[in-house]
Amino acid sequence: ALTIGIVGLPNVGKSTLFNALTRNQVLAANYPFATIEPNVGVVNLPDPRLQQLADIFGSQRLLPAPVSFVDIAGIVKGASEGEGLGNKFLANIREAEAIAQVVRVFDDPDVIHVDGKVDPRSDMETINTELILADLQTIENAIPRIEKEVKIKKRDAAELAAIKAAQAVLERGDTVFSSIKSDKLEMEHLKELSLLTAKPFIYVFNADEGILGSPEKQDELRAMVAPADAIFLDAKLESDLVELDEEEAREMLEMNGQDESGLDQLARVGFHTLGLQTYLTAGPKETRAWTIHQGDTAPQAAGVIHSDFQRGFIKAEVVSFHDLIEAGSMAEAKSRGKVRIEGKEYVMADGDVVEFRFNV
Ligand code: GDP
């Protein structure tokens, strides 16, 4: 469910990036019980806190939070009208929670560009236009039904107003996300339509050294896509990196002037874009990060481990990561009064170290 769909024009490096994501096999080994679909690539959310906790608890293994990506075929002009993979493709994106759009900014005369030249602004426009046209279609199809429901008072008129506002945004060529993401209520009204452009966007610029080494050029591209997030990586380098061991990979990154791999960036930014956070559990067996939404309560957080934990929730024993590290042990944190007992209403904070009490 928490997947990010990868889209982009043909030949921009989507498959190269996706291969890097799927060959990142360390992850699959960590999650033996998870079925990983062939078109899903997983990357760990980098989190140095896990090792620190594992040291305190003597944990045998670390389980970081996974972020999943789903490969969706390339978009060509006319996709919204059923050209190319058309509708099937659109159905695939509809299921993703966010969209990562791969944009080619690397120069390479050997790699043909579908439109003949490398022009990120025009490429993004092509893709976004197709998504916008698809959303307009969705709205036009829905409006008669929604108007009827408002008339017979089965539905709030505010919902119809929100849908019409989104229609106006799309008609002037903007994406819903970049125009009204700050309006929570309006976004809530639009939810049932699953509009493609209402999903959070991440722009993944597939770059060469010329851009990776130039903060100015990156800022220019960043400004083009704001308020959406942007990341810069070299897809080819990423697919080489996953073949190396940790040490070698770090050296290769350093040689390229980067301090973090593109996949790690992708996981971090993706996590942020999706409005997620993690809480932690730790013991002698494992230290693990669990993914929850910002604003989730303690029972909701417990439900991520097991639905029984949510149903039978009694209380949570919570210590912040920072307090626990400062104390150096759970016993010391307790004697300092840093371990709190929290109830059903407690809103989780990022980095809470938790033990749940529940009835089964
Ligand atoms: P897709 O159609 O978007 O999936 O694109 P591919 O991943 O198949 O890449 C198209 C071509 O571009 C392939 O020949 C890749 O080797 C090449 N390519 C992908 N990423 C890069 C990159 O970062 N730099 C360069 N120079 N070539 C790349």
UniProtKB/TrEMBL annotation:
Record key words, sorted: ATP-binding, Magnesium, Metal-binding, Nucleotide-binding
Cofactor requirement: Mg(2+)
One Pfam entry name: MMR_HSR1
Record domain TGS: where: 275-358
Residues annotated as binding ATP: 11-16
InterPro entries assigned: ATPase_YchF/OLA1 (IPR004396), Beta-grasp_dom_sf (IPR012675), G_OBG (IPR031167), GTP-bd (IPR006073), P-loop_NTPase (IPR027417), TGS (IPR004095), TGS-like (IPR012676), TGS-like_dom_sf (IPR023192)
Domain OBG-type G: 2-253
Record-linked SUPFAM superfamilies: P-loop containing nucleoside triphosphate hydrolases (SSF52540), TGS-like (SSF81271)
Entry similarity comment: Belongs to the TRAFAC class OBG-HflX-like GTPase superfamily. OBG GTPase family. YchF/OLA1 subfamily.
Primary role: ATPase that binds to both the 70S ribosome and the 50S ribosomal subunit in a nucleotide-independent manner.
NCBIfam families given in the database record: redox-regulated ATPase YchF
Name the record gives this protein: Ribosome-binding ATPase YchF
Protein species of origin: Pseudarthrobacter humi
Primary gene name: ychF
